[in-house]
Design brief:
The protein is an alpha+beta fold. Helices cover about 55% and strands about 20% of the residues. The radius of gyration is 36 Å and the shape is elongated.
Length: about 130
Amino acid sequence: NDEELTHEEYVDAAQRCLQIEKEMNEILDRNPDLVDELEYEVQRMKDEKERLERENELHRENLDALQRELDEKKKSLNTIADDGVGYIHHVGDATVETVDDGDVVHEVITFSDSEHDDDDGDDEESNVEDGSAE
């Protein structure tokens, strides 16, 4: 507000504040329990605000951690796509998929012959990292 208030406007505002205060005191005099209820409600609202702020901070931290994890996975996938060496080859009735990302060699072996087939009809998979079976 670029306008400056006049002395009369300040006096008028002060009189309105005093009138409001007088009315509030009259209400509180007629309802003495109202003060305790209002104080209780104010405290309850402050406690709830603090609880929600803590919860929000935890969610924010969790989101940041998930974002960092996602960024790492994207970076890892980009590294594999850019620098990794991938192979798919067949050995007998098995298909071997190999990805070397520079740090770890990932292999997925899928058997499709009846000798390795289990009773449910699904192909059996074996994951191998760094040459050791899991």
